[in-house]
Specification:
The structure holds two protein chains of two kinds. By secondary structure, chain A is of the alpha+beta class. Chain A has helices at about 60-75, 105-120; strands spanning about 5, 10-15, 20-25, 30-35, 40-45, 80-90, 125-130, 135-140, 145-150, 150-155. In chain A, the strands form two sheets. In chain A, strands 1-3-8-9-10 form a five-stranded mixed beta sheet, with no helix packed on it. In chain A, strands 2-5-4-6-7 form a five-stranded mixed beta sheet, covered by helices on one side. In chain A, helix 1 (about 60-75) crosses helix 2. Chain B contains 16 helices and no strands. The relative contact order of chain B is 0.13. The chains are: A alpha+beta, B mainly alpha. The interface of A and B includes residues 9, 25, 48 and 96 of A. The structure holds fe (ii) ion (FE2) (2 copies).
């Protein structure tokens, strides 16, 4: 059974092969982590880079990533087999440079990479930045990521 | 520019029958609410004539977003409990759902995405209006939010065939998507939306919101604040991926709108941070 799990804004989802995790991204980043041996994985849909401390953990890159990694380890994943893919982090086409809201997409990507590196998880593929909205499907049967943007589909296979 | 596409769209606009329709009660209520000589009782009677919509309205009155706790079982009670402006907004939600709650092909919006987008923009517009001391027009901001992209329902079919060209023009000339729509097809979704609102006999302020939501600076001065509210709400919802379609974020975040409302960087980021909450509230209305 190919269960489709929709992951909402500032939510997290984790499951095993052959489930598919889906989300829709603007400036948010979808962080997809996969254990290629156990064929289990998870997705975090983060809205902002940094948790002020008292926020919902799933909403921010710096708190969502450790939470997701721990969840996967608890489900039986091994750290040495984990790898990540990133998508999203788009920005408005035009905005005044002094408006910080315009930089949130980039900041989300940057922080996600930083926290993944800190946790020792390599980022193997990314489809980030630009001005596209993205619908992403993360297939836990083999860890591939399908990114649909601007009427076209791209597939990322590295795990 | 494709002259034949422009002609086909012009044909649709000229023949009002081909533009989407909504129940008559919507425009009647919009007019009656603004007429000080018309009683709430008369408005309640007008709404109650339409059985189907009355059922939907009562359901919405008792939804988590609108409910004040007490069960509401008649339009009369709804007006007393929620106030006439709130009931007017609910009538618009019930009346426009069928037109907006569908697949929008050319913009790659799955069933329900444009509807969810409109409702989320409505809820956020109302929140911004209240936050910026414009409570008196919060209900209009809400209505405008629901319908701001209604033109997409008609233009989608044509965007489907010209999408590649529109996107290429957007990138080659660094112009927003809607501007490229107009250059390729002769019309953008804002203009079509305004025509639809004329057919529905909606007031000028709502037409201004639909027409100028991507370029508030072009709005008549009297409507600039409310157009700016919907512009900011639309931007934040798209950034959060709510109803983001094939046109993505190929839109401008207007400095005029930010300055008109006096929004600081911090306020903008806080509104964005609270998007999950807005989405929860919107979901209660869907
Ligand atoms: Fe629009
Ligand atoms: Fe919109």
């Amino acid at each position: 059974m190919n269960t489709l799990i929709n992951v909402g804004v500032s939510q997290m989802g984790a499951s095993s092969s052959p489930s598919v995790l889906r989300t829709i991204l603007g400036s948010c980043v979808g962080i997809c982590i996969y254990d290629r041996m156990k064929k289990i994985g998870g997705m975090a849909h983060i809205l902002l880079p940094n948790n002020p401390g008292d926020g919902v953990a799933e909403k921010y890159a710096d708190s969502a990533i450790p939470l997701l990694v721990n969840r996967l380890l608890k489900d039986g994943a091994k750290k040495e087999f984990l790898s990540a893919k990133l998508a999203g982090g788009a920005s408005m086409f035009k905005f005044n440079a002094s408006v910080t809201l315009g930089q949130i997409g980039e900041r989300n990507v940057e922080e996600s990479k930083k926290i993944l590196e800190k946790n020792g998880i390599p980022v193997l593929e990314e489809d980030t930045g630009g001005n596209m909205g993205r619908v992403i499907d993360f297939f836990l049967e083999d860890g591939r990521l399908k990114v649909k943007a601007g009427g076209q589909e791209k597939l990322y296979y590295k795990v | 520019m494709h002259a034949h596409i422009q002609q086909r769209i012009q044909g649709i606009i000229n023949n009002l029958d081909q533009l989407p329709s909504i129940p008559d009660v919507a425009s009647k209520v919009l007019t009656m609410v603004n007429d000080p000589d018309i009683s709430f009782k008369a408005i309640a009677e007008e709404i109650s004539k339409d059985q189907a919509i009355t059922t939907n309205i009562l359901k919405l009155c008792n939804s988590a977003y609108f409910s004040k706790g007490k069960e509401i079982s008649s339009i009369d009670r709804a007006i007393v409990t929620l106030g006439i402006k709130e009931v007017k907004d609910i009538v618009i939600v019930a009346a426009t759902r069928e037109v907006l709650n569908k697949i929008i092909v050319g913009y790659d919006l799955a069933r329900g995405e444009l509807w969810k987008h409109g409702i989320a923009v409505a809820v956020l517009s109302k929140k911004i209006a209240i936050m910026k001391n414009k409570k008196a027009v919060a209900d209009i901001a809400f209505t405008g939010g629901i319908i701001h992209d209604v033109g997409k329902t008609v233009l989608a079919l044509f965007v489907q065939n010209t999408f590649r060209e529109i996107l290429e023009l957007t990138q080659a000339r660094q112009i927003p998507f809607a501007q490229a729509e107009k250059e390729i097809m002769g019309f953008d979704h804002q203009e079509i939306g305004e025509k639809i609102l004329s057919k529905w006999k909606f007031p000028e302020v709502l037409k201004a919101i639909v027409r100028h939501h991507h370029e508030p600076e072009k709005s008549p001065a009297e409507f600039l604040p409310i157009v700016s509210i919907v512009h900011i709400a639309n931007t934040l919802c798209l950034m959060a991926g709510i109803g983001i379609g094939a046109d993505g974020l190929y839109h401008e975040l207007s400095d005029t709108a930010i300055k008109t409302l006096g929004l600081s960087n911090r306020e903008l980021e806080e509104l964005y941070r609270d998007m999950p909450q807005i989405l929860d509230q919107a979901t209660a209305i869907l």
